Amino acid sequence: MTITTLAKLSALLEKGSASSVELTQDYLSKIENSDLNAFISVDVDASVEQARKADRSRQTGNHSKLTGIPVAQKDIFCIEGTQTTCGSKILENFVSPYTATVIDNMHSHGIVSLGKTNMDEFAMGSSNENSYFGSVKNPWSQETQTLVPGGSSGGSAAAVAAQLAPAATGTDTGGSIRQPAAFCNLTGVKPSYGRCSRYGMIAFASSLDQAGPMTHTAEDAALMLNAMAGFDAKDSTSLDVPREDFTSLLDNSLEGLKIGLPKEFFGEGLDSDIATLIENAVKEFEKMGAIVKEVALPNSHLALPSYYVIAPAEASSNLSRFDGVRYGLRAEGYTDLNDMYEKTRSEGFGDEVKRRIMIGAYALSSGYYDAYYSKAQKLRRLISNDFSSAFEQCDVILGPTTPSPAFEAGSRTSDPVSMYLNDIYTIPVNLAGLPAASIPAGFTQSGLPAGLHLIAPYLQESKLLNIAHQYQQVTDWHLEAPKSIAETITGGAK
Ligand code: GLN
Question: Within 13 Å of residue 138, how many CA atoms lie on the same side as its CB?
Fold first, then answer.
């Protein structure tokens, strides 16, 4: 069983040995026969119609590399005329009147949207167990235990790992692309803050949110990012920088590359198998001519506490728009306006979302603002400065993506802090706005995927993808598929 990459599908379409309609129908039937709960909704007619249009574009020679390739979209992105739930009951019946810029960009590249993937409610979570639409099963689950796919982009990760889609979009506020990529043996890229427009992407924490690709390979991630990224006047935080071809540096040699290893990422709490796999990866890079040195990120232990003030503070403000007046659910049987707000929000939001709103409102309230919110912002600056100093000594920072491999479903739901600790290595990157990737680095003794975390200086996605791609030329961890999938998939998209 080999995995199906975007690059392969692109070549198939180019040769004319498959049509977009065939590929799309093939994936749609895999989705229908899957029991992972990776999708919240699928609009078969809309996808097939897009595929027809893509086939016509290919016939007229008016196409991009990705024209006709079906991709799954996280249900945080608005698509006009399509149910967009963000994993929440409050948006269960919300049909978006417009399309997110990232999706629009992909559609103008001819990409076919394959359905909306499951996710933690409003992207709050690390296991996809906070979805109103039920939890998602990691296709790497073992006979004896059901594992979580990670979160919040757990549906996207499970879908790509199980080959229900060749690639998917995700969003990353504190690790939600990279952590599920690590748990499901994928390549996941969080671009620099501002690279991809946030217009039409439902906001969780606006100073941290960023969209990105989830794929099998770094090459595919570069192709996807080419289609997703770009300046957008409709998002004031979108970066007005020239368009880049993220595939342009993929083949560069790593001779002389300086890799920084922060000792803070290898301390207590790191699974010993993952530590060994990361050490092995470092040796591979040395063989390719990279120079490894220790760097310091002395304030990383402050990232989690500062994130869990800043993200809820921003969320409490962003989520105030869901009040039963204009969007989604409105509770029945209320007595006055305040009662309507209260009933709608208490019926519409799940427990984790309520917890964040309460923490956020508290941290922002007068009298506590300085003690919590301002303090957290100051810590954020220290964390960001740590990265700047480290990048004076190295070109890229390397470590594990997560402290543990995928864990058993239900094992952390009663202890939010143990859940939050999963993002200990990914969160500092969001606070600093940097680009980072998680790529497959091998398997623990119990056969679970481990993620290698690469962090680059601001706007150096091309470099980041170059490093990831070169590693994937000398390893084949990213080509491994879960056994359950390898046995069942025989469809046409080979
Ligand atoms: N797991 C983190 C949280 O719950 C990050 C989520 C994300 O990146 N969207 O906030």
Answer: 33
Which residues fall within 8 angstroms of residue 360, CB to CB, at 6 or more apart? 311, 312, 313, 314, 315, 316, 317
Give the range of the structural domain holding residue 335, as residue numbers without chain letter.
Answer: 302-371
| 234 and 128 together in one domain | yes
The H helix count followed by the E strand count for the chain is: 16, 11
114 and 202 share a domain? Answer: yes
Q: Please check whether residue 493 lies inside any domain of the structure.
A: no
In the DSSP assignment, the letter for residue 151 is S
- What is the average per-residue pLDDT within 345-367? 96
Question: Per-residue pLDDT for 493 more than 50?
Answer: no
Which has the closest alpha carbon to 100: 242, 244, 209?
A: 209
Annotated catalytic residue 463: no
The answer to whether the beta carbons of residues 224 and 213 sit under 8 Å apart is yes
| Residue from 86, 169, 176 to probe ligand 1 pocket by mutation (most atoms less than 8 Å from CB) | 176
The answer to whether residue 378 sits within a structural domain is: no
Q: Which residue has the tokens 């790593």?
A: 254
How many whole angstroms from its chain centre is CA 236? Answer: 22
In a domain, 351, yes or no: yes
Q: What is the pLDDT of residue 486?
A: 65
> Quick check: 221 pLDDT over 90?
yes
The whole-angstrom separation of Cα 363 and Cα 38 is: 34
Q: How far apart are CA 317 and CA 363, in angstroms?
A: 11
The verdict on 344 and 398 lying in the same domain is no
Tally of structural domains, the chain: 2
Please pick, among 34, 176, 438, 462, the residue that the annotation labels catalytic.
176
Pocket of ligand 1 (CB under 6 A): 123-126, 152, 172-176, 204, 311, 423
Q: Which atom of ligand 1 is nearest to the CA of 204?
A: 9
Which of these three, 371, 398, 421, is where a domain ends? 371
Decide if 291 contacts 257 (C-beta within 8 A).
yes
Same domain, 79 and 196: yes
357 shares its domain with 483: no
Per DSSP, helices labelled H in 19-150 are: 20-32, 44-59, 101-108
Q: Residue 141 — φ and ψ, nearest 5°?
A: -55, 150
User: With contact defined as beta carbons under 8 Å apart, do 157 and 183 qualify?
Assistant: yes
Give the list of residues 6+ apart from residue 68 with CB closer than 8 angstroms, or none: 13, 19, 20, 23, 51, 54, 55, 57, 58, 110, 112
DSSP assignment letter at 374: I
Residue 17 within any structural domain of the chain? yes
The 10 Å CB-count burial string (b at 16+, else e) for 133-148 is bebbbbbbbbeeeebb
For the stretch 269-328, pLDDT in tens is 999 999 999 999 999 999 999 999 999 999 999 999 999 999 999 999 999 999 999 989
Same domain, residue pair 438 and 312:
no
Backbone angles phi, psi at 239, to 5 degrees: -85, 130
